[in-house]
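Lab notebook, bench 4. The sequencing result for the construct came back, and we need a structural model before the next group meeting so we can plan mutations. Quick request posted to the team channel:

Model the 3D structure of this chain.
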Amino acid sequence: MSETAKIKNLWGDLPVDTDIRTPYIVLKEQASLLSEATNGLLVGSVNRTSLDKSIYLYKEYDCECNLEIKVPSLNNYSISIVKVSYPINIYPSKISSQATKDITTSKLSDRRRT
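Done. Here's the predicted structure in token form:
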């Protein structure tokens, strides 16, 4: 009899769900689809960060993922468009837009006149 067979399992029956789609996986899928849909003119990429709760003031989230769009033809210009923050138990997640709306209505109307 092996040594591990003599030890009582204190974990019980742990559920194993292989269908869990984390925010990171969802963003990676979307990044890949963007790259495919534009034939590489735009390249999606995802950066993942584990947050150190001793440093960050908002302690409700453990991880962050940023979806960036890169443009290889523009010297790899990139912009972060979506940030997802989530706790270790994944959901609920906080999704925030990273795209800024710097153009005001007056600036748009000025551009149309020229």
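Residues 17-100 form one domain.
Will bring this to the meeting.
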